[in-house]
Amino acid sequence: MIEIRGLAKDFQRAGESTVHALRTIDLTVERGEFFVLLGPSGSGKTTLLRCVAGLAVPDRGEIVLDGVTVYSREKRVLVPPERRGLGMVFQSYAIWPHMTIFENVALPLAQKRPRLGKAEIRERVSQALSLVGLEGMERRPTPLLSGGQQQRVALARSLATEPVLLLMDEPLSNLDARLREEVRKEIRNLAARLDITILYVTHDQMEAMELADRIAVMHEGDILQQGSPEDLYRKPADPRVAQFFGSTNWIDGRMRDKDAVETAVGCLAVTDSGERTAGEAVVVAVRPEDVELTPHGQEEAARENRFPGRVVSNVFLGDHRVYTVEVGEHPLLVRTLASVLLGGDVGVRIPREKVCVFRARSRDELPSADGS
Ligand SMILES: Nc1ncnc2c1ncn2[C@@H]1O[C@H](COP(=O)(O)OP(=O)(O)O)[C@@H](O)[C@H]1O
Ligand SMILES: [Mg+2]
Question: How confident is the model over 191-232, as pLDDT tens digits?
Fold first, then answer.
């Protein structure tokens, strides 16, 4: 449905260095897929979406939508936005305050060529409104609507033209947390019901995981990794991806052989060390929920990846707890349902298949701990 090949775009800013907003992007989105572009602010998400929409002109590469080349530097093709057959929803709803809901939603329909009849327009508006749960509200003035309702009107307006492709740029970020969750569910249900392909931009990892069939993680104009939410969480190909998806314990180490890493915690057996070779400095990542606590004493058996630890702090979070457990001098976060004694000795087990191994240098490339 969307094929993007070698897409690049720079911005020149007066008196400053060139910004590589998109470096060399390759991306394929299948028909009917809910595809999310996820990344921190400034990573190039909006620029990529605007290039697909035709609102920004790339410097190089190619974009094919539904089999039609809409941009190609080489073939000198540039199809204008209104002829790309797509709908768009942005962070700011761009709802006209002097118009009713009906007039706002009908706006893009009135511009359609060949012209639509009045009855057809009325029918399409009413269908679009019922899709977003605003049926029968055609005559309401828009200034009285809540943020959530305004975003629904914007959504209805983009759906009324019956696009095969819908582009959404952080559509929920102006809503408060509760509404955000509600509208998020609606968007997901809508996507499941309609035969539509969605390219959706967000910086919110939870939002991406809840909505996406597949996610591309962006960073400084590059795509670090693409895959299902589970792939990205379980098998991050890059430490920045691991960092982006929830919390992680980072432990420095050195490869002993291809199946084991010497670390401050002890010698860790690993299942997949990638291309790493004996003697190489590495950093390993272990999710807090993958660290297991066992009764003190069982670790003496010197079985694989079992270490003695001491519980130094405990945070109660309702449906789970997060402990800090010191193994040697190294603090590990452990997420568990169990309750253990603060200050007590415990056994710690790190299942080998849950350990991710990265090149040591790559850890310096991580964003700072506050996520910025
Ligand atoms: N019109 C523009 N002029 C100059 N720089 C821009 C412009 N649009 C975006 N940029 C720069 O390009 C980079 C990517 O921006 P953007 O695509 O908006 O990122 P995101 O949507 O992920 O926050 C940023 O460094 C941003 O400052
Ligand atoms: Mg943006």
Answer: 888 889 999 999 999 999 999 999 999 999 999 999 999 999
Residue from 19, 59, 169 to probe ligand 1 pocket by mutation (most atoms less than 8 Å from CB): 19
CB atoms within 10 A of CB 348: 23
Confirm whether 105 is domain-assigned. yes
Q: Are residues 198 and 261 in the same domain?
A: no
Nearest CA to ligand 1 atom 16: 44
Give the CATH number, domain containing residue 300: 2.40.50.100
Does 39 sit in the ligand 1 pocket, CB within 6 Å?
yes
Domain that includes residue 84, residue range:
2-240
Angle at 49 between CA 44 and CA 55, to 5 degrees: 110
Question: What SS3 class is residue 351?
Answer: coil
Q: Is residue 205 domain-shared with residue 328, that is, in the same domain?
A: no
Q: Assess whether the C-beta atom of 45 lies below 6 angstroms from ligand 1.
A: yes
Model's pTM, two decimal places?
A: 0.86
pLDDT in tens, 120-137: 999 999 988 988 888 899
Domains in the chain, number: 2
Dist. CA 222–CA 25, nearest whole Å: 7
